[in-house]
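Weekly sync, protein design subgroup
Attendees: M.S., D.O., the rotation student, P.L. (late)

Item 1: inverse folding check
M.S. brought a backbone from last month's batch and wanted to see whether the design step gives back something sensible before we order anything. D.O. pointed out we never logged the input encoding, so this time it goes straight into the notes. Structure tokens as presented (362 positions):
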């Protein structure tokens, strides 16, 4: 090893560790490639074909529009550090971006990740990136590259941060925008797996700090499982569900709008897809919320309104459609191909763009 390399290593950056990581993850990442991916992991950038002999999309799109978004996992990562469980946060990373992408009807094409840490632990990084690759396969998008940054003194020992970037494509005249929503339409909720990746600063304050501190490894009777297992359950990826529905029903006329329920909950996210003169009434008696939300509300003595403004409360994605089509769409979502438990959770009414929550206890 050269003197220069030794000096950099003594400063806290191990170039060889980065090379070892690439060699470990290469096979899993390549599993996400299709004929559209034109490069490999060794270049400075990668390429994805939208047409030509290698492409899948040249005959499907006459006026393709590229759609892009980015997100992270947030303080849920703190639980991964504490439990030393690192394979689930990769799915969280992919889901947070891909679920945003599909709300306009876009087909996910490819994904890139950014992994930053103080000192690179190849084994930990491998688990994270293998999780990312597995989630990309589930979403049917290629993991075409990423960046691993080793930055001594920037992060505490054993910690890292993640960011993800997704790109998709949609035909311009098939972009789902909510413009045709009208009073009488039905709001369908696709159930979440739990907390997903939002609200963890509050979760950690209520359950893992001070007098209320709970043991992540201990079973919690109210949850029916260990607290750590519940809190680290990964975010659902709704790409196949949305893909299936959009392939069977006309977008815009029938699949009128989709909303990813993340930070801000139902109250803040649904209005983003509504026309100015439409409101939504949600009835919380129409679905069973996961028990973790009851635990959090009790521990923090949080009002119903704040709970529905911070957390997804058991609904990870919302779809708006005409009343006439609602039952058929529910059957499609629950089919083997989509495999997404779903419920009618409310309706569109006349009013100023907003969401009104009717609480089950009211």
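Designed sequence read out in the meeting:
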């Amino acid at each position: 090893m050269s003197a220069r390399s030794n000096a950099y290593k003594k400063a806290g950056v191990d170039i060889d560790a980065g090379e070892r990581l690439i060699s470990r993850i290469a096979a899993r990442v390549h599993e996400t490639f299709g004929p559209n991916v034109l490069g490999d992991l060794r270049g400075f950038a990668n390429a994805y074909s939208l047409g030509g002999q290698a492409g899948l999309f040249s005959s499907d799109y006459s006026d393709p529009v590229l759609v892009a978004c980015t997100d992270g996992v947030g303080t849920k990562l703190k639980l991964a550090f504490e439990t030393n469980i690192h394979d689930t946060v990769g799915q969280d990373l992919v889901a947070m971006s891909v679920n945003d992408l599909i709300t306009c009807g876009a087909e996910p094409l490819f994904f890139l990740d950014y992994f930053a840490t103080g000192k690179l632990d190849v084994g930990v990084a491998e688990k994270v990136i293998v999780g990312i690759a597995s989630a990309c396969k589930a979403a049917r998008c290629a993991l075409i590259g990423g960046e691993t940054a080793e930055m001594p003194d920037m992060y505490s020992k054993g910690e890292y941060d993640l960011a993800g970037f997704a790109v998709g494509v949609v035909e311009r005249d098939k972009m789902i925008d909510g413009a045709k929503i009208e009073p009488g339409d039905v709001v369908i909720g696709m159930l979440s797996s739990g907390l997903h990746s939002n609200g963890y600063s509050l979760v950690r304050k209520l359950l893992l700090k001070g007098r209320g501190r709970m043991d992540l490894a201990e079973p919690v009777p109210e949850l029916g499982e260990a607290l750590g297992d519940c809190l680290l359950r990964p975010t659902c990826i709704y790409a196949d569900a949305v893909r299936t529905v959009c392939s069977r029903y006309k977008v815009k006329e029938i699949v009128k709008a989709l909303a990813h329920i993340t930070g801000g909950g139902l109250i803040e996210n649904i209005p983003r897809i509504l026309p100015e003169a439409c409101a939504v009434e949600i009835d919380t008696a129409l679905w069973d919320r996961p028990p973790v939300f009851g635990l959090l509300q009790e521990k923090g003595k949080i009002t119903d309104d704040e709970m529905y403004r911070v957390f997804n409360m058991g609904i990870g994605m919302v779809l708006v459609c005409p009343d006439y089509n609602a039952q058929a769409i529910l059957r499609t979502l629950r089919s083997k191909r989509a495999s997404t438990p779903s419920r009618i959770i409310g309706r569109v009414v006349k009013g100023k763009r907003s969401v009104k929550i009717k609480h089950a206890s009211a």
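Discussion: The chain is about 30% helix and 20% strand. The chain has a mean pLDDT of 90.
Action: P.L. to compare against the previous round before Friday.
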